[in-house]
Design goal:
alpha+beta; Helix Hairpins; Heat Shock Protein 90; 6-stranded mixed β-sheet; 8 strands
Length: 266
């Protein structure tokens, strides 16, 4: 009887192991496919950097050299963003994200990120709209910086070359005690049925474009929700998409920032 019980237990363990293998194997393959896709996406900027660097060794005039240097800078930044998104996604915990909140002038932060983004980008025209009065909030400055960088990167990647991108900082139009960061492009927009899906990891609406890994918007939402905020996408006024991030404000910040936005071209 004891031997039979032991045999039954052994068979149950084998069956359980087999069932587990049936579940785990597809997940493992899915992960390998995602890693392979990421490696494929990273090859494009690396190839452009390598080719441009080789061309710089030739006898070029000043304009041609400056153009190639700009290409290398843009592609190196793109590659850096891809690596950073992947690293941050891997580090994202299942539950809480550690927020190191301090008072941050969001007006200065948006201006600084937008100016840095435009300094090496020649494919799009970037405009920022900032309120006349500064808006400060208790946030993790580095995470908000990444939120805006990812939103701008997404807008530049998925809208046609030569079009405009608008970055706006304003108080919530709904009257809620929130500050809103908006990035609007002139691309094809996001269908209503996909407006939640785009924030899921490894989701790209234009899968054949080779742009990005489908992690940037997921990180935007996770970082935003860790602040107690909201992230969503809606139709823009220019026919494209408008990605919005709302962050809660202390009562004093809203009262100090009631003036309207001032447009600044970067």
């Amino acid at each position: 009887m004891g031997t039979s019980t032991m045999a039954d237990g052994a068979r149950e363990k084998v069956a359980t192991r087999d069932r587990s293998a049936t579940v785990v194997r597809p997940l493992q393959w899915r992960g390998l496919e995602q890693v392979a896709g990421i490696a494929h996406d990273m090859r494009a900027p690396l190839a452009t950097i390598t080719t441009s660097a080789e061309l710089l060794e030739q006898d070029l005039n000043a304009d041609e050299s400056a153009h190639l240097v700009n290409v290398i800078q843009r592609q190196a930044y793109r590659l850096q963003q891809m690596i950073q998104d992947l690293a941050e996604f891997i580090r994202l915990p299942e539950n809480g994200i550690n927020i190191r909140a301090e008072e941050v002038d969001l007006t200065d932060l948006v201006r600084e990120v937008a100016a840095g983004f435009q300094s090496f980008t020649t494919t799009h025209h970037l405009t920022i709209e900032l309120p006349d009065a500064a808006i400060s909030a208790l946030v993790d400055g580095e995470k908000v910086r990444r939120i805006l960088q990812n939103l701008l990167g997404n807008a530049f990647q998925y809208s046609p070359r030569g079009t405009s991108v608008l970055a706006r900082l304003c108080l919530s139009r709904s009257g809620a005690n929130e500050v809103v960061i908006e990035v609007e492009d002139e691309g094809s927009g996001v269908p209503e049925a996909d407006r939640e899906n785009v924030f899921e990891p490894f989701v790209r609406l234009d899968a054949g474009s080779g742009n990005g890994q489908g992690l940037g918007l997921h990180i935007v939402r996770r970082f935003t929700e860790a602040h107690g905020g909201r992230a969503w996408v809606e139709d823009g006024e220019r026919g494209g998409a408008r990605f919005c991030v709302a962050l809660p404000l202390p009562a004093s910040s809203a009262a100090e920032s009631e003036s309207g936005p001032a447009a600044v071209v970067v």
